[in-house]
Amino acid sequence: MTTTNELTQEMQAAKQYVDHVFEIVKKRNPGENEFHQAVQEIFESLTPVFAKYPKYIQHNILERMVEPERVISFRVPWTDDNGNVQVNRGFRVQFSSAIGPYKGGLRFHPSVNASIIKFLGFEQIFKNSLTGQPIGGGKGGSDFDPKGKSDNEVMRFTQSFMTELYRHIGPDVDVPAGDIGVGAREIGYMFGQYKRLRGSYEAGVLTGKGIAYGGSLARTEATGFGTVYFVDEMLRDKGKTFNGRTVVVSGSGNVSIYAIQKATELGATVVACSDSGGYIYDENGIDIATVKQLKEVERKRISEYVNFHPTATYTEGCAGIWSIPCKIALPCATQNEIDAESAQLLVNNGVKAVGEGANMPSTLEAIDIFLKNGVLFAPAKAANAGGVAVSALEMAQNSARVPWTFEEVDAKLHGIMKNIYKQSKEAAAEFGYEDNLVVGANIAGFVKVADAMISQGVV
């Protein structure tokens, strides 16, 4: 029989191990604040796992897991429409192949640097594990900004980007997809360049492709739909639903649009969304058709919405969106968009649930405020895993050369999100953190990858 003193000693040993590895991470990766934040959030959840299962310490799993298997950085020269040569920097971080080929999106945004790509890649290990699909963790991108660029400029940039990246990817090696700034247009140009360079048609090398050349139905909707499916499962477990609730969704890109659509279908009233310039508020409920026309077809700013709906209002700046009273908040824009102040505003205004559609949109301080105030909190690596889950389903369709219907893919997505919730809830309960899905998702994602690493030896 294990004594209280022995358990305390095991927890102390586990904490010492976790703290030691975190110090190594900070020393090896100076100034990479986003990466440090992602690592710290996960590490804080894993101490009880190491106390209960010391084999993970014996195999030094944590130090192995936080070091990417491969980091690729490269120059991307391209010519703009005025004939001037421009230079950007490209990245691909191949973090973990323990349970499958590297899988993760490409982000094109001026903020992209090594720290952001590493934080995204590290999170992707656990997110991909939670889906139950055989895919490892990776991420990539560039500090190139597609906003304001012509189609020809985007094409020249993406072709140059792929001319280097193609050496490091493949259907059974590394399968990129889209992320912020990378949609169907960018994926199409990159796939065409990859095909030209390889001299073969390897449909499974990229996901998020057009339907005409190997894409999957429901992939566009997957991350937004999946976030709402996860939050709906979380709500139902507590006897609540979306029906009749006021919802605020940040962002107005792919994830946001389809989160708005699905929440509305479930009976909610979504009253606000945003882009990098500011946010709109429509007390009658956001008209999703207008948002789709502005953002998906015309590529215009969300401020244009008020021209079609004069009772709506537009406010410059994004942070104020969290001052709007709501029962459910879905941050779907970018990392660290909800800080402690915004979290407290949401709590003061009666928020009951938060579902992260973006990657790491809440700071550690914000998460702490939500949990301490009893807010149901769906962490990103669980709640927004729908996109990569359907990317894996796209890979399966490419391998079988058999397309599935929208309804088939959507049903599989719904089942995957329900299972992720179940895994996260059960893992949290097993280690004494009832209803803490942050801890539950981290542990459930970690254990699968860690066990695979042990089984494969020191690699």
Question: How would you describe the overall organization of this protein?
Answer:
It is a single chain. The chain has 459 residues and is an alpha/beta fold. It folds into three domains: 4-66; 70-200, Rossmann fold (3-Layer(aba) Sandwich); 220-378, NAD(P)-binding Rossmann-like Domain (Rossmann fold). 49% of the residues lie in helices and 15% in strands. The chain has helices at 4-28, 33-52, 55-58, 61-65, 114-130, 151-165, 184-198, 219-236, 254-265, 288-297, 305-308, 340-348, 364-372, 380-383, 386-400, 406-430, 437-455, and strands at 70-79, 85-96, 102-108, 136-142, 174-178, 246-249, 269-274, 278-281, 313-316, 328-330, 353-355, 376-378. The strands form two sheets. It has a seven-stranded mixed sheet, sandwiched between helices. Helix 8 (219-236) packs across helix 15 (386-400) and helix 8 packs across helix 16 (406-430). The radius of gyration is 22 Å and the shape is globular. The mean pLDDT is 96. The record marks 179 as: Important for catalysis. NAD(+) binds at residues 223, 254. It comes from Domibacillus iocasae. Pfam families: ELFV_dehydrog (PF00208), ELFV_dehydrog_N (PF02812).
